[in-house]
Design a protein that fits this description.
- Strand 2 and strand 3 form a beta hairpin.
- The protein has 299 residues and is α+β, with helices and mostly antiparallel strands.
- Strands 8, 9, 12, 13, 14, 15 and 16 form a 7-stranded antiparallel β-sheet that branches. A 5-stranded antiparallel β-sheet has the order 1-2-3-7-6.
- It has 2 domains: 91 residues, 2-Layer Sandwich (Phosphorylase Kinase, domain 1), CATH 3.30.200; 157 residues, ATP-grasp fold, B domain (D-amino Acid Aminotransferase, Chain A, domain 1, 2-Layer Sandwich), CATH 3.30.470.20.
- Helices cover 29% and strands 27% of the residues.
Length: 299
């Protein structure tokens, strides 16, 4: 596979497919999972027919970076991304797996998206205009699109494999997981956001919002899935930040903005992206990785 080819799907003979998400293919290895980040891209919960070159490698590399960065806040499911340390049954596939896969602990995932917002954008901005609140949290009057919030807020949502996630209040999470776990999810999510956000800002990136996923492992709460990637977060260039409008970004908002201009009802099938949009999106993902980690993808 050359650098600019896209991996849109995997089918590893002899491995049991655990689930195929919008972007990742997950394989069951007994007490562990193999997560493979493809180059698929989804917008408005629809997978597009084309991929973004290097996207899966960026998602994997950034997740590995952040898993290491946040271990002092909460343990995570990461075991290794080094294909040389993978079980023998994966050796035949190491050329495809290298750079875009992780071996992780198998957990019991909690069916909630743990969203933290530091700025007013996306569905949060839409809800604020209607209710002057997000997920039941009252916000000050007079905020504009992309305003920095007085403090980061925990705004959970449902987790949908198919269709749209929906914002919910903290009471929903309490009913789902119990008050103790719900309170911890909120505290840990905000702590993760603040720690990563301070670091990212020092590298020239505003993390406007992000979502985390958690699971139970050996009776404890741990961070799972991906972490603080351009797929799960809004990354804005700090030097171009200007409240009162939408912001330029390092994430797939660039693709969403292009799709919004089309006569498309946001249901499958999604339109094909022009080559220039694909390449510019690839560049944005690579730039985010380099700014945050200080190195290019192949170093």
């Amino acid at each position: 596979m050359t650098k600019k080819e896209c991996l849109l799907s995997t089918d590893f003979k002899g491995l049991k497919l655990f689930r195929r998400g919008k972007v990742r293919d997950v394989y069951d290895l007994g007490d562990k999972l193999l997560i493979v980040s493809t180059d698929r891209i989804s917008c408005f919960d629809v997978v597009l027919p084309c991929g973004i070159p290097d996207k899966g490698r960026v998602l994997t590399a950034l997740s590995c970076f952040w898993f290491d960065f946040t271990t002092d806040i909460i343990p995570n499911h990461f075991i290794t991304a080094d294909v040389e340390d993978y079980p023998p049954e994966l050796k035949a596939h190491k050329k495809v797996l290298a750079g875009r896969s992780m071996l992780v602990k198998k957990t019991k995932p909690l069916p909630v998206e743990c969203v933290v917002r530091g700025y007013l954008s996306g569905s949060g901005w839409k809800e604020y205009r209607q209710k002057q609140s997000i997920c039941g949290i009252k916000l000050p009057e007079g905020l504009v699109e992309s305003s920095k919030l007085p403090e980061a807020i925990f705004t959970p949502s449902t987790k949908a494999d198919i269709g749209h996630d929906a914002n919910v209040e903290q009471g929903y999470v309490e009913q789902l997981a119990g008050k103790d776990i719900a309170d911890r999810l909120a505290r840990v999510s905000v702590a993760l956001y603040k720690s990563a956000g301070d670091y990212a800002l020092s590298k020239g990136i505003i993390i406007a919002d992000t979502k985390f996923e958690f699971g139970m492992y050996a009776g404890d709460l741990i961070l799972i899935d991906e972490a603080l990637t351009p797929d799960s977060s809004r990354f804005w260039p700090a030097d171009k930040y200007k409240p009162g409008c939408s912001q330029p970004s390092f994430d797939k908002q660039f693709v969403r903005d292009y799709l919004e201009e089309l006569d498309w009802d946001k249901t499958p099938p999604a339109p094909q992206l022009p080559e220039d949009i694909v390449l510019k999106t690839c560049q944005k993902y690579l730039q985010a990785h380099k700014l945050l980690t200080g190195r290019s993808l192949d170093e």
